[in-house]
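Q: How would the structure tokens look for this protein?
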Amino acid sequence: GHGKGVEGFGKSSWYDAFNTTEESLFSTRSKKRHAMKRRMVAHGFSAQSLQLFEQFVDEMMEKFMGKMDEFARTQQPFDIYFWFELFTMDLMGELALGKNFGAIEAGKPAKYSSLVEQSQRFSNISGVLPFGKANVKVLSWVPIPRIQELWKARVEYLEFARTALEKRFRDDRKELVPSGKARQDIMQRFSTSNTTLVWVAGASTGSVTMNWMTYYFCKNPEVKNRIIKELENMFPENVDGSQILPFVKLQKLALLENAEIECLRLHPPIGYSMPRDTPPQGAVICGHYIPGGVAVGVPAAIIGRNETVYKNANTWSPDRWTDETADLATMKTCFLGFGYGSRQCIGRNVANQFVMKMMATLLLRYEIELEDPGLVLGTKEFTIQKPDRKYNVIIRPRKS
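A: Here is the predicted structure in token form.
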């Protein structure tokens, strides 16, 4: 991010690999252009827009809970992370294009999801090549079948995004929100490049965060039960979770939010470093002089487990964020779950809204347990830090 003390560190050529039809909010290396792009879309992520967007979150959650009710009736083990991915796919479709992909109802991923992952893999590979802005073109010429497969996926994905966005803008229907005003999509001010940014950032990161929260709640029933107790006190008329919970009240539930933050500390969706070039005069980092123009970075997954910052860093403990004996200021400064400074995730509040609503409703509505109570889940990474294996949960209606 662009934070205090890092102004001389510009974004490295790695970001050029993520340019598509043009620079996106993520890929632009210019601080001035980044600020301009951010101002253009900031209203779409404002508190007012968040309130308008909540009805679409609720609609997608109702569909999702309908599927969960079926699993609760049969009590058959199932892959909940898979369903979280379907939910966020549809939700990002609503957010970006005003229309979901029908993934939840179909019970299978939208076509674009596999294209997204392959396109991101292509970008990650091309980003480490030494040819600057020519990285993408150079890699597209490499006659290795797997590389060509990734390149074709990137081209197909960009065409999919372009046509989907054009269709949305051609749609003259005035969709109304409850206030009677015409619906405003965040993407009405976005280009194709930023459409891909929302789909990837929103869908992939949100689903994997809910996955980790589910896993840790199953592993830590004491924390889970404390949250359920707080939810029951907060919603006495809805202790069975039959109604989708409103975000305005959930914002006051610190323990649930701290559980989310703790998952992001241990398993930040983007775990690797976002490289920056040292300033022309070089820089001294941890006592070592680094010449100018060298790409450096701090992986979020590493600093999040730094024992000098976080006591018992490998232990999941939401209470650490309210521990008055800890150096909370340093802990918060080193937390990179959403990035840092002016470059931190612009959709943080959107993600926090649907993650909090989803997890709170699930906890009130169902008893959730791992099919294998002894499961120790690790991570694998390629753009997004995902679980290292598939796993199942069993849910049943909760007895309030």
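The two ends are 45 Å apart (CA to CA).

The chain has 14 helices and nine strands.

Upvote if useful.
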